[in-house]
Amino acid sequence: MLTTHQLHIDGRHHTLLPATTLEALRGDLLLVQADGQSRRTALALALTGRIKPSTGTVAMGHEGSMATLRRRSAIIDAPEVNAPEHHLTVRSLASEDLALVPLKFRDRTRPTEWLVRHGFRDILDKWVEEVDSGRLLHLQLELALADSCVDLVVIDSPDRHTANTDAWLPLLTRLATGELGRGADASSETPLRPLIVVAVVGSIPSDWNGPTAVAGEDIAGGVADGEADGDGSEDADDQAGQDTGGVGLESSSRPSDPGPQAASGLPDTVSEDTVSEETVSLPTTGMGDDVEPTAGSGVVLERTSDPEESK
Known about the structure:
Layout: E1 2-10, E2 15-24, E3 29-33, H1 37-47, E4 55-60, H2 66-71, E5 73-76, H3 90-99, H4 111-117, H5 133-144, E6 152-156, H6 169-177, E7 196-201, E8 212-214, H7 234-244
Parallel strand pairs: 3-7, 3-8, 5-6, 6-7
Antiparallel strand pairs: 1-2, 1-4
Helix pairs in contact: 3-4
């Protein structure tokens, strides 16, 4: 089970994430409504241990270690973090992600074979921008599940691509129940792999009857401090993201497993065992000062020293 208690993230000029309490169970899909893209991305990063909360807690089961949370989680399709880049082919995308799977993995250098075995033969040489959004999401989920350590998957704004919930809602439900990640050659005897699945969305679909939560509220539905005075409105949040650069990462290639080095002005409190070779830069304007980048989604944050800090 994934739980948060009054999870709160301060930005430089506004509250990035109001205090939020929620819980997500293995085998269930939890939809969390959050206003504004920067807020949705911040929540997705926090739930996977990739941003250190300003206050409050996030934990998986009885394990409160951020490093453990990072190792056991994957963040999917976060804009400016690890969303697939349109200039890549599907084969290149798979090659990058499979190369970052930790431990021994036999398909690390055989992306074509992996794609064929998982039912993506027909899109092998297509550009990412040519692939239907639902199919591309399916591919990203399967790639994340190539890591056998993943127990938690958080999807950032799957509803931003299409108003048709059929493109992503049934897929995420199957992900939670364990029907994905088994390969096309899986038999009826192949065990299921139930997961904790959280989708951070702009709005809850009217036909959804499963578990839901709202950023800025506790489980009982109480509004957190900061929401009542307009801090959490989507217009204000989006404008803040435009003014400050939001939560995004600037990257020349699609990352899928963030590492430990903190960005400029952020604490470098992660352990050495999460270091990856790929590095990208995280603009910190608009974000909280306490950020803990991590492994598990392909993003590696590079710390730039601040002259003021060295004094």
